[in-house]
Amino acid sequence: MVYAVLGVMVVLSVFPLYWMFVVATTDSATATSLPPHVLPGGNFLYLAGLVFDTVPFVQALLNSVVVATSIGVGQALLCALAGFAFAKLSFRGRNTLFLIVVLTMTVPAQLSVVPQYLIMSRLNWVDTLQALIVPGLVSAFGIFWMRQHIVGTIDDDLMNAARVDGATTWQIFWRIAFPLVRPAALVLGLFGFVNAWNDFLWPFIVLKSPERYTVQIAIKALQNNRDIDLGLAMSGSFLATLPLLVLFVFIGRRLVQGIMEGAFKG
């Protein structure tokens, strides 16, 4: 019964991706026909070539890789550093500041678009990739995630022993704390990478030039205002999803192992 339920859940999870590939190999008429076609067609290479001819899709993929990787690595390191400070360092206003950080998680992201755009305009960062990277390097959820993990993983006696041996606060973080919470940081970095890769609203607002488009904006550029070629749009969407699938194939098992190791260390 357990395997049957898991099998049904797998089918339900994978079917949207499969249907996207089916549409990406056909055309709009086939995609909307009744009964629907459930077998892939033979137009994927043609539509994929049309995607690359319509928009600078290769450049968009490279831009997304740069942005998503920078945000993923930045969140893994900076949120771990902030979480370590909130969890293990004593300073005035620590609890108040952490409460403010947590409360920012209740504010809808859409409310920050206008002030964030004004800041980017003042910095002359509009239509640049740093306008996407810098605001995403740290997140309130990431700080909360790492702080809670550090509290449950790192013992104060271990830090006191390191201080007795003459280690500085930075050495304690980099040589003791961060290796112990690396699995949690890896999970956070992966979440940050995926969220940055799939982000549409903020790049759509701040990017103007086609050569700076991310992959989600390039997919939007495949559609005109009057009609939507579902085959072309789904081909672009499948090409944009493919790097994430490759990433999970290579890192999925290591990610699970890292989570289990971190749980046992805790």
Topology:
Layout: H1 2-24, H2 28-31, H3 44-54, H4 57-88, H5 94-104, H6 113-122, H7 130-133, H8 140-153, H9 156-164, H10 169-180, H11 182-198, H12 201-206, H13 215-221, H14 230-265
Oligomeric state of the chains? single chain
Q: Helical percent range?
A: over 70%
Q: Give the strand content.
A: under 5%
Structural class: mainly alpha
Using only C-alpha atoms, the radius of gyration works out to 22 Å
Mean pLDDT: 87
Gross morphology is globular
Task: Give the number of helices.
Answer: 14
User: Could you list the spans in which at least 5 consecutive residues all have pLDDT below 50?
Assistant: 262-266
Number of strands: 0
Intertermini distance: 33 Å
Q: Could you spell the SSE succession in H and E letters? A: HHHHHHHHHHHHHH
Sketch the major β-sheet. Answer: none
Q: In words, what does this structure look like?
A:
By secondary structure, this protein is an all-alpha fold. The protein contains 14 helices and no strands. Residues 262-266 have low confidence and may be disordered.
Key terms:
single chain; 266 residues; mainly alpha; 14 helices
